[in-house]
Amino acid sequence: MSHYGDELTLRLSGIADTSALDDDAALTRFMRDLVDRIGMTVIAGPLVATETGPPEKAGKSAVVILAESHAAIHTYPRLREILINVFSCKPFHENDVLDEFHRLVGDFRITEHSLTRRGEEWPRDLTAARSLWSSQRVPG
Fold it and tell me: Are the beta carbons of 88 and 5 closer than 8 angstroms?
């Protein structure tokens, strides 16, 4: 690989089946399946929390802390939307993430999309990486 890791941020709209978007158990299973599919290692979670309030802001947030970084989703069932962020120090395939969301909710439209290849300049040699990190660190 030519880069250190990926960050994928998505907004999915027009969710066909919103039933899982307000279901703690379904979201917990989904987060486990998602990180397993993209080959990540769970350190903590998944944790699912409920956001109450006006219908346009009500929904669930689910996060899992990974050895490789994190994955988070925020669901808005009444708006038929999901916001997603998968941030990793290990490359993964975007299509695997999208396939898992299709399994969870059926059809959707991608209304926001950002994929960043992180660390293209980051050295692969750990000694060089430590040196780069140390040189950029502000003395405390």
Answer: yes
